[in-house]
């Protein structure tokens, strides 16, 4: 094993370990989210809408208003909690998928010492698509939230930074494919 291969193996091993730790932390966060959601459901199930009656006088009392117009009422809280939970689980699911796929890339590099493989290029393309999805999820979630509970924050937010990052990662996938072609040509000449 030459010096370059040693560096590749060492870097891939470190990245693999860091990604495994990140995945473990991600699963812990998901477990905590499930426990908190379950606890909130139990508390709301036991207390019901009366849970908020100490703060507000009626079910239709305004929690948040803008320009004298009611924006958020107590009756919207269960829907908002459900919407927030869905958003959180979607983000964590996509983020965990990225961590798992990135882990496969570095695990494969560590085992084969070959960064330029067709699998790695495909993994990078998949990561790029997941990043792009994460970048547009807020806009879709807001549209769904407005349709379901009638609450809109008028954000319709797309992450330009995320879309640029997705483009960069997708471009790196093509660089990996080109590196694979060069590697195959070099192997054929030997």
Automatic annotation (TrEMBL):
It comes from the Archaea. Keywords: Membrane, Transmembrane, Transmembrane helix. The keyword Transmembrane helix applies. The chain crosses the membrane at residues 21-47, 80-106, 127-149, 155-173. This is DUF2975 domain-containing protein. It comes from Methanocorpusculum labreanum (strain ATCC 43576 / DSM 4855 / Z).
